[in-house]
Amino acid sequence: MRHHETRFTPPFPLQDAQAYTMAGDRMIVIAFRGTEPAQIKDWLTDATTPPRPGPGGNGYVHHGFAEALESVYPAVHDTLAELRSDGQAVYFTGHSLGGALAMLAGARMYLEDPHLAADGVYTYGQPRTCDRLLAEAFHKGFGGRMYRFVNNNDIVPQLPPEPVFTHVRALRYIDSGGTLHESMPMFSALTDRAKGLTADAFAPASDGIRDHFMHNYLAALEKCLG
Question: Matching CDD domains, A to Z (predicted)?
């Protein structure tokens, strides 16, 4: 396993960006570390920082995500080029901030270095990361290979605000009862989210934070698999 880490100094709002590369005979998994919603909420809602050009000149990405990815991308790229010696399948994954970095890393390799393109991208509680132009370019390369899991009222996928930033497609929605849906009509999703908010009568607003925790994603997915 390889560990990639870069530390930041203020005023950049994150302490560091980290990724881990795990390689075997048949598969290579690159996992980007996430962060807690309280640490990035203000940053994600800050509209004063202009977006950055996206990979391959396609659209735009959130400035902070671009900076965080750039800090570890060279090490991730070089490690993947070194370890992918026998045609292993490659997967990117991440939770929260890590989900945004996994999606952007997948997009960058597909658009700029296609011989290293990933076979799949799996994200959990990923924030909105890019504009519609990059989202469409990403979908062309990863249609059927991108899985963006959102747990009910998770607050982070609702940030940064639209319309400047948007999500890539391939939503996998986990409802308030823990059931996984490959698609969810808007009215049904709104009804289900309202149901989730009332699950804790003493702290309804906490649902958006509670649903973001990775252990709740794992519990729901284990329930679906079981």
Answer: Lipase_3
- Can 154 be counted among the known catalytic residues? yes
Q: Based on the residue annotation, tell me whether 42 is a catalytic residue of this protein.
A: no
Q: Which CATH number fits domain 2-225: 3.40.1180.10, 3.40.50.800, 3.40.50.1820, 3.40.640.10?
A: 3.40.50.1820
Note down pLDDT in tens along the chain; length 226 residues.
999 998 877 666 677 889 999 999 999 999 999 886 666 666 666 656 778 999 999 999 998 899 899 999 999 999 999 999 889 999 999 999 999 999 999 999 999 999 889 999 999 999 999 999 999 999 988 888 999 999 999 989 998 888 889 999 889 999 988 889 887 777 677 677 667 665 554 445 577 788 999 999 999 899 888 7
Q: Which residues contact 26 (CB under 8 A, 6 or more apart)?
A: 88, 89
Of the listed 131, 154, 207, 211, which one is catalytic? 154
The DSSP call for residue 178 is: S
Catalytic residue, chosen from 71, 96, 175, 192, is 96
